[in-house]
Amino acid sequence: MEPDIDINIDIKSYLTFKLGGEVYACHVSKLLYILEISSISEIPDSPPYVKGILSKKNMVLPIIDIKQKMGLPPIEIGKETCIVVLNIDSLTIGILVDSALKVLEFEESDILPIANIGGNHHSGFIVGFVTDGDKFIMVLDIRFSNAETEFFKSTVLKHIETSSAVPN
Fold it and tell me: Does some domain include residue 6?
């Protein structure tokens, strides 16, 4: 019998991306892939940060505007805007970002508490920051409430059942 080993324990890589004028990062263990923007079907009666669903690669993905979720102005779709597809708490979800940048490596011990920079960077998703030269990079740990997770799961199931309403 093989030991139960967390394969992500030694991964020090983080995907960086832009949201507005700021750079953010998330651990690559959550990253599945990055998609170009395509047709997103709106979901009636959804929270404002939920932009809709996208049918891609034989799956239905809820798409959220992470900026809006963090209390910032909505993302403006541009030529570099893309969808970062993440696995969060066993849920596959796409987040809109202004642009995907690069993968950086740093130790968890390099992440400084957010209280050290002050300003308007208040979000339950931000766990701290690192520096890359003279730039601050906000490190995110994106999580959703149980109610939000259930909303995403039920929305995906509902749209799978009525898949003719979802463009491919």
Answer: no
Residue 8 falls inside a structural domain: no
Q: Is 102 within 8 Å of 18 (Cβ atoms)?
A: no
Residue 47 lies in a domain: yes
Q: CA–CA separation, 161 vs 111, rounded Å?
A: 43
pTM (whole model) above 0.90: no
The boundaries of the domain holding residue 43 are: 13-165
Name 84's bridge partners: 34, 95
Position of tokens 């987040």? 95
What is the pLDDT confidence band of residue 90, given thresholds at 50, 70 and 90? confident
CATH of the domain at 119: 2.40.50.180
Q: How far is CA 53 from the centre of its chain?
A: 14
Give me 148's structure tokens: 């939000």
Q: What is the dihedral of CA 141, 70, 36, 100, to 10 degrees?
A: -60
